[in-house]
Amino acid sequence: PQWGGRSGYVDQAGDLQVRASYEEGAPWVTVASNVKDFQLLDWRIAVLQHDGTLLLGEKKLAEPLRVVDHDVAAFQLTRNRLGILRSDGTLRMKEWGFHSQAVATAVQAFQVVDDRVGILRTDTTLWVSQGGTAQRFEKLADRVQTFQLERELVAYRQETDDGGSRLMLDHVSTTTATA
After folding, report:
1. Listed residue (171, 173, 178, 175) closest to 149, CA to CA
2. DSSP-derived 3-state class of residue 98
3. Beta strands per DSSP E along 33-152
4. What does the pLDDT profile of the chain (179 residues) look like in tens digits?
C-alpha cells in the first residue's frame, strides 16, 4: 500500500520494508519484524506484530518504533488518532500527543475518521461518537451486521425479522448516550 510520501510491503520473512516514494531510487528500510499488519499515513506508521504488540512510529524511518499497546486484535491510524481494538473487545483511542484510553467495551468492529468513531458491539448494536474525543456515543441501530462511516453519513447492513438483511443509510446527529 502507499499513502502520503511512503510505500511499504511485508516481505517473505515477515519484515516491514518502507521507503520514501517521492525520492527516486530511495532505499528500502526494514522498519519492523514479525509483522501481521501495518498502516502508513503521511509520516506516521502503525505496525501490528503477530504476538499482538502494536508499534507506532512518527517522522523519520530510521527512528525506532515505540510500543503503544499489547494484546491488540486490530487498529486504525488517522492523522491525529489511533484506534486500538484489544483481543478482549476493549476499544482504546490515542489522540495526538496523549496516552491511549479505553472508550468502549464489548466491541467487535470499529472505524475511526478524523472527527468520528463508530463501533459495532458484540450485542450487534451500532454506536457513533462525534467530535474531538471519543467519549460519548450515540446508539444508532440494533441488529447491525456491518457498517461504514463517510462524512456525516453512516451506512450499515441491518438484519430483518425474516432472517434477511437491508442496507440502511443514516445521518449522524449530535445527541449522545453512554456506550
Report:
1. 171
2. coil
3. 35-41, 44-49, 54-58, 66-69, 72-77, 81-86, 91-95, 101-104, 107-113, 116-121, 126-130, 138-141, 144-150
4. 444 578 899 999 999 999 887 677 888 989 999 999 999 987 889 999 999 999 999 877 778 899 999 999 999 998 888 999 999 999 999 887 678 899 999 999 999 987 889 999 999 999 999 876 666 899 999 999 999 999 889 999 999 999 999 999 998 754 444 44
* Cell 458491539 -> residue: 121
Whole-model pTM? Answer: 0.87
DSSP state of 130: E
Strands of the 153-159 sheet, one edge to the other: 144-150, 153-159, 165-171
Q: What is the CA radius of gyration of the chain?
A: 18
Neighbours of 169 (CB within 10 A): 10
CB of 47 within 8 A of CB of 25? Answer: no
Helix (H, G, I), strand (E, B) or coil at 124: coil
